[in-house]
Amino acid sequence: MSEQIKLNHLEQLRQYRQKLRREPVLKYLFLELTLRCNEHCRHCGSRCGDVCTQEMTRKQYFTFLDKIKADFPQLPMLCITGGEPLLREDFFDIMDYANRLGFVWGMTSNGTLITPQVAKKLEEVGMKTISVSIDGLEQTHDDFRQSKGGFRKSVEGVKNLLKHDFKSVQVTTVVTKKNIGELEELFSLMCDLDVDSWRVINIEPIGRALTLDGYTLDRVDYRYLFGFIRQKRREGYPVMYGCQHYLGIEYEREVRDWYFLCNAGIYVASVMANGDIGACLDIERRRETIQGNIFKDDFTEVWYNRFQIFRKPLADRNQQCADCSSRNFCEGGAYHSWDYDNNKPLVCFKDILFK
Fold first, then answer.
1. What is the reported pTM?
2. Does the N-terminal peptide bond of residue 83 adopt cis geometry, omega within 30 degrees of 0?
């Protein structure tokens, strides 16, 4: 695709983003069912397993889902996450209720608990999509997730899912210094499994990864990563980068289906395990990013009348971003990788992927 066509598309997206800030559309509602997890990933953005919080009850989820159905004529897709959502004993009760209300839903999981019986039950309660984490070959994955035998269980979980008629069975891989050399072998594994898509993302400076040494990618790694994804896509394989960052004209639209757009607060909202209301669950949880709590606030009112921190360009907070030649397309980047104390991006690909 030519540079001029990309520039035209990006300008159209810039104008549309401005409209969304005035008229947000709740497309995706994330429900963090638990912060409990049976793995202890070195990079976990939510520090699952280290953080204990009282979880919403099954009845409270029923009541909340009733309200969303009443207040939103166009139901958002439910994105179920954790921790590991399948650790909840009432998981299937909650998701069966959501399915009967008419919600389309998908989930993220480490896959280790997905036996043939669990896969069948997921189909019965209407799950449409799932993303399972596989973060390297066996030794690398098990070390990264601090879960002996986790790789084999996750691969078996994916195989069990693929025996059913789900809309999309995806694998997500977090790329680090420890596994970037395994991408070709992992690609062969994805082809052998015949997954519907492979989502490849870089490790981010959030959660436990903030204090993790020796895992962050450098300039050479990033260019190799994006070149790898682009080449596989050109060969017709369903490999994609996540929604994380603006990548510059050379790579935008080359490594994912569309262009960079941080969905936080304009397409995406979330309810955390304790009832707190936020945008993307990867965003640092602090006073200004938490928008309310469903036990004290009306979720619908919060969605339409708060979230202002996510409906103003991050670039307005930082002079270097404001003066950047890519400002109109990046606008300061993603809200989950912003340093809210110093008002600057924690990740920026300028001078790495573009000038």
1. 0.96
2. yes
* pLDDT attached to residue 52: 66
HSE of 221, CA atoms in CB hemisphere, 13 A: 17
Does residue 53 contact residue 293 with C-beta atoms inside 8 Å?
no
Residue 25 near residue 72 (C-beta atoms within 8 A): no
* Spatial contact of 332 and 245, defined as CB atoms under 8 Å apart: no
pLDDT tens, position by position, 282-333? 999 999 999 999 999 999 999 999 999 999 999 999 999 999 999 999 999 9
Q: What is the CA radius of gyration of the chain?
A: 20
Q: What digits encode the pLDDT tens for the residues 273-289?
A: 999 999 999 999 999 99
CA distance 199 to 72: 30
Residue of 27, 38, 32, 45 lying closest to 202 (CA atoms)? 45
- Name residue 339's beta-bridge partners: 344
51 or 192, which is more confident: 192
Place of tokens 């997905």: 114
